[in-house]
Amino acid sequence: MTVNIDASWKQALSDEFVQPYFQNLVSFVKSEYSDHTCYPPGKQIFSAFDHSPFERTKVVVIGQDPYHGPRQANGLCFSVQDGIPHPPSLINIFKEIETDLGKPYPQSGNLEPWANQGVLLLNATLTVRSHMAGSHQGKGWEAFTDRVIKTISDEKEGVVFLLWGGFAKKKASLIDKNKHYILTSGHPSPLSANRGYWFGNKHFSKTNEILRKLGKAPIDW
Prior knowledge:
This protein is about 40% helix and about 10% strand. By secondary structure, it is an alpha/beta fold. The protein starts with 6 loop residues before the first helix and ends in an 8-residue tail after the last helix.
């Protein structure tokens, strides 16, 4: 069974692709995509990995589920295709960058430029059925993406993990805190942000500060 994913990740995760749960997951996803409209487009399911190869990944952002509306999801958490209106969480992410870094609010919500700099924008579940949030949860994606996080933790050093909201914070148990940096805050969704749990976290400047200390290039957010 061939998985169309960047070669560096294929090597790092080779043991996972032969696991029975993963083969069952592939069968499920193929069936869903053949019988229903699903997102992201098939070629973009592993986009997060293709844009941020294993050896270049230095920041990890953890999301939960892809957007389930037409033409939104592009395989990167919180990101939308060019020309698509920005969802509420993404708007709040960009607002925080405005105040944290003094950068103008961007036109495009496509976060590929972040990914190309080594920011792994990882959803816990990589696919979803159209207009059915959470429809592909509990099918095996979470086991796979937990293994991704654990592999990064075990095999790399000095990675900055951004854990936004309760769901993402639970992933801290997979990360070696002695080797890596974990920044946590509320989720950028309006429900959390408007209650004071998101704005002012300065995660973008803090991440760059850490990267500079490690002698790595900062992210152009």
